[in-house]
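Data card: per-record layout.
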Amino acid sequence: MSHASMPPTGEAGPSPYKNKAIGLAIAAAVGGFLFGFDSSVINGAVDAIQEDFGIGSSLTGFVVAVALLGCAFGAWLGGKLADKFGRTRVMLVGAILFFVSSILSGLATGVWDLILWRVLAGIGIGIASVIAPAYIAEIAPAAMRGRLGSLQQLAITLGIFAALLSDQLLQGAAGGASETLWLGLEAWRWMFMVAAIPAAVYGYLSLRIPESPRYLIATGRREQAKTVLASTLGEGADVEDHVVQIEHTIATDKKLEAQASLRGPRFGLLPVVWVGILLSVFQQFVGINVIFYYSTTLWQAVGFEESDSFLFSTITSVTNVLVTFIAIALIDKVGRRPLLLTGSVGMAVTLGVMSLAFTQASGSGDDITLPEPWGVIALIAANLFVVFFGATWGPLVWVLLGEMFPNRIRAAALGLAAAAQWIANFAITVTFPPLLDRFGASIPYLMYAIFAALSFLFTLWKVPETKGIELEDMEGVKVDRSRRGTAASA
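The structure for this 490-residue chain is written out next.
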């Protein structure tokens, strides 16, 4: 029943069908923008929060990281809600949660209610992180699904850049993050409240875009599903055949309802679910967020002043945005596995070079310096690491999570895998400072290099190639045969 050989539609040039699919994918990917914006917006507010609320460094670090725990819960919850209420309705819930939390975070009267609103923001972001890749995978034609799925990561990187720029503009306008800006409120409060704007945009878009055709057919709205498919598959596509395929898999799922569970023989979960979880964990355990959250230490070690840290953090975030286009250009031509394998090698080497460079450091904790030429070598290696991550593991993991699971468990499995990603993000974020204090920078970067090397072996051994395979045929993708890059048709 495989339609992997079906020629791509609209490849000769722009078409209304292709543009429709792109437009829907961009709308869904705004959730990724919220993800990136929220993960970086607090960076400009950290010192001001610590000063205004009179809290120590440990509690400040918890304020920074606590949203990630909310994200893990939101991702787990979002997968379950999406199967019950539909993709677009759950998008709206995520947008509302993030909108409300943005306003209340800016109006927080103390650290504990700020923590509460940060958790609420995390739940909204976690929901969005699950729904976007699932929705994009389900509305995108197989021939361009990888490119459209990569928009999620592109939106994340744009959100990171927008947050950094917004923080700098607000801080500059007020003369400091702790200084009063508008309506008697400090600039750091406006850093949070400005996030309500993209949240409102996301909510509006969720009300405008059509529901996933697979959810529509599952709930008996066949004609609506045909309309959505006709608008995205392209002229000449057999819409009725696609509907029949979806109906067939839904009927099969009902017969196998007892198997519509994530439970399996390997440590309580299905093998494909473990692959999704480990993809998520490896994506975070290579230490990408250390580069974005704690880059000031590296820049200062190279010899730059702290006042220049924003400039270099911005350069890194812009690099992350630009290299995502490499993935968008190659993912549907080269495939998922070759890009992941290339990224693993590149990350392992660059992280290894950074670890080696920091063996030459003098000082301890945040107060370290690197002699020439090791400072420049570390700086180049850090940015090359971002290039390899941003062109491969950054976008490709989201693409694979959106497409690799069988239909009957897609949303729930994606939710669990995304929750694992947020927990891994939290673990890396909170462990880097104590590791830095105890061992210096060399040991943490060596640890991340080892995880990057392990990600190569994991990809070679377990990750299936899903390039060009219809979602209805994902049931036949054999994880254990991925070494040969094969996939059996359903």
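Known properties of this structure: The chain has 19 helices and four strands. The longest helix spans residues 145-174.

See the next section for split statistics.
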